[in-house]
From TrEMBL:
Domain annotation Gelsolin-like: ranges: 62-156, 203-253, 329-394
Name of the protein in its database record: Actin depolymerizing protein
SMART domains given in the database record: GEL
Highest taxon of the lineage: Eukaryota
GO terms for cellular component: actin cytoskeleton; cytoplasm
CDD domains linked: gelsolin_S1_like
Pfam family name, one: Gelsolin
One Gene Ontology biological process: actin polymerization or depolymerization
GO MF annotation, one: actin filament binding
InterPro entries membership: ADF-H/Gelsolin-like_dom_sf, Gelsolin-like_dom, Gelsolin-like_dom_sf, Villin/Gelsolin
Length: 399
C-alpha cells in the first residue's frame, strides 16, 4: 500500500496531523506565529536573534527552561526541546555585482525534540507541537528533528560531548530526585561506553539499574553509594571510557568529599563491587558479563532512495524518483515535497512552491513510510524547507 493511503493516527507521537483546508495557508501561519509570539520560552528577545544552544523541558504541558549547568544531561522519563542556532556565511548577490558574490551572515536553526524512552504521550505530544510552534516563531527557517533516546543521531551527539542519560523524570514511574536531594541509601550506577552515533572519542554516560546484571566487560561503571564511589573497569573497556569515568567521578566529588576506589574486573578485589550490586554468588574472575547497551546505532538501509510527494496530476501521489548513489540536489523540484531515505535518517524537503495539500500531508506520509520499513522505528526524521537547508541535509543528499 502506498504511504499516502490508509493513513491512521499514530499511537505515540502525533505531529500536526491535520488536513483541513487552511493548514499551511498564510492565515494558518499567521495564527500560529501569533500563538508562538506569546510563548515566554521563545519571546525573550534572544531566541532567533542570538546564536547559541537552548534547552527546555516539558513540564505539565509547559515549556520550562533547562538549567545551563544541566546541559547534556537528560532524564529518560521526560521530553525536551533543544534549539541550536548558529551564524554561517552565505553567498548572496550584492548590489550592482552581476558577476561577483557577497558573503552575508545567515542564522541557521536546528530544533530537536528529544523523547525519553519512558516519557508520557502527553509530554511527547507537547514537545512535538511546541517544536512546530518554535519553527513558526523562527519564520519556518529551522530544521526539525525527532530525536529518540535509544538511537541518538550524529547531529544531536555532536552538540553534547558530555552526554548523560539519567533515570527519573517529571511524570514517569521512577522517582525524580535532584542530585543534592538524593538520600544516601539510594545507589546510582552509571554505565560509560562509546556512543554509537558520535565520533571516535564520543563517550556516553547512561544511568542503569543498580544490579550486577547491568555489568558488561566491554564498558566502565561508576557506582555512587553516597559515602563512597567505586569505579569498575571491564576487562575489555577502552582507554577513552576510563578517561570519561575519571571525569564523571571528578564531577561527583566536587560537591562532596568521599573516597574513590578504582577496581579492574581482573582483580580479585572487584568482587566487592559485584557484591554491592547483589551478586554475592557471582565470581567476577570466572563470569562473562554481558548486558545489552541502552543506546544503539540507528539501522541503515542498503540503498538510498528519493521519493516525490505531489498532487500535480490532481490526486496526491507518492512515487520513487531515484535510488542509489546518483541522487543529487538536481533531483529536487521546488514545486513538490520530497522524502529522502538516507539510510540512517529520513529527510523531508519542502519545496518553496509546494501546494498546500503537499505541505499538509508530509508528516503523515513520512510516518507511514517509516512504519512500513523494517527496523526503522529508531530512525531520525528531520524536515527542512527550501532555502533553509543546513549542511547535514546536503551531506545526506550527496552521500
Amino acid at each position: 500500500m502506498p504511504p499516502h493511503e490508509g493513513l491512521v493516527h499514530p499511537t505515540e507521537y502525533d505531529w500536526r496531523d491535520s488536513n483541513v483546508e487552511l493548514v499551511n495557508s498564510d492565515i494558518d501561519h499567521k495564527v500560529k506565529y501569533q500563538s508562538a509570539a506569546t510563548e515566554p520560552a521563545w519571546n525573550n528577545g534572544v531566541i532567533g536573534a542570538e546564536p547559541g544552544l537552548y534547552i527546555w523541558r516539558i513540564e505539565d504541558f509547559e515549556v520550562v527552561p533547562w538549567p545551563k549547568e544541566k546541559y547534556g544531561s537528560f532524564h529518560e522519563g521526560d521530553s525536551y526541546i533543544i534549539l541550536h542556532s548558529e551564524k554561517v556565511k552565505s553567498k548572496q548577490k550584492g548590489d550592482g555585482e552581476a558577476d561577483s558574490d557577497a558573503e552575508k551572515d545567515k542564522m541557521v536553526h536546528d530544533i530537536f525534540f528529544w523523547l525519553g524512552r519512558h516519557t508520557t504521550q502527553d509530554e511527547a505530544g507537547t514537545a512535538a507541537y511546541k517544536t512546530v510552534e518554535l519553527d513558526e516563531f523562527l519564520h519556518g527557517t529551522a530544521t526539525q528533528h525527532r530525536e529518540l533516546q535509544t538511537a541518538p543521531s550524529p547531529a544531536f551527539a555532536a552538540l553534547f560531548p558530555r552526554l548523560s542519560i539519567l533515570r527519573g523524570g517529571v511524570r514517569s514511574g521512577f522517582t525524580h530526585v535532584e542530585p543534592n536531594e538524593k538520600p544516601e541509601h539510594i545507589d546510582t550506577l552509571l554505565r560509560i561506553f562509546k556512543s554509537p552515533a558520535g565520533g571516535r572519542d564520543a563517550i556516553l554516560v547512561h544511568e542503569v539499574e543498580p544490579t550486577w546484571k547491568s555489568l558488561d566487560e566491554d564498558d566502565v561503571f561508576v557506582l555512587d553509594k553516597g559515602d563512597k564511589i567505586f569505579v569498575w573497569q571491564g576487562k575489555r573497556c577502552a582507554p577513552m571510557e576510563k578517561l570519561k569515568a575519571a571525569q564523571v567521578v571528578n564531577d561527583l566529588t566536587v560537591a562532596k568529599h568521599v573516597d574513590v576506589e578504582v577496581l579492574s574486573q581482573s582483580e580479585a578485589r572487584s568482587k566487592v563491587f559485584v557484591d554491592y550490586l547483589g551478586g554475592a554468588d557471582v565470581n567476577p574472575l570466572e563470569t562473562q558479563f554481558k548486558a545489552p547497551r541502552p543506546v544503539a546505532a540507528a539501522s541503515e538501509r542498503e540503498m538510498k532512495k528519493l521519493f516525490r510527494l505531489s498532487d500535480a496530476e490532481g490526486g496526491l501521489s507518492f512515487e520513487l524518483v531515484k535510488e542509489g548513489r546518483g541522487i543529487g540536489s538536481g533531483d529536487l523540484d521546488g514545486g513538490d515535497v520530497f522524502v529522502l531515505d538516507a539510510g540512517k535518517s529520513i529527510w523531508v524537503w519542502e519545496g518553496r512552491d509546494a501546494s498546500r495539500q503537499e505541505k499538509a500531508m508530509w508528516i503523515r506520509v513520512a510516518q507511514k513510510y517509516v512504519a512500513q520499513q523494517e527496523d526503522a522505528a529508531s530512525l531520525e526524521v528531520a524536515k527542512v524547507r527550501q532555502g533553509s537547508e543546513g549542511m547535514a541535509f546536503w551531506a545526506a543528499v550527496e552521500a
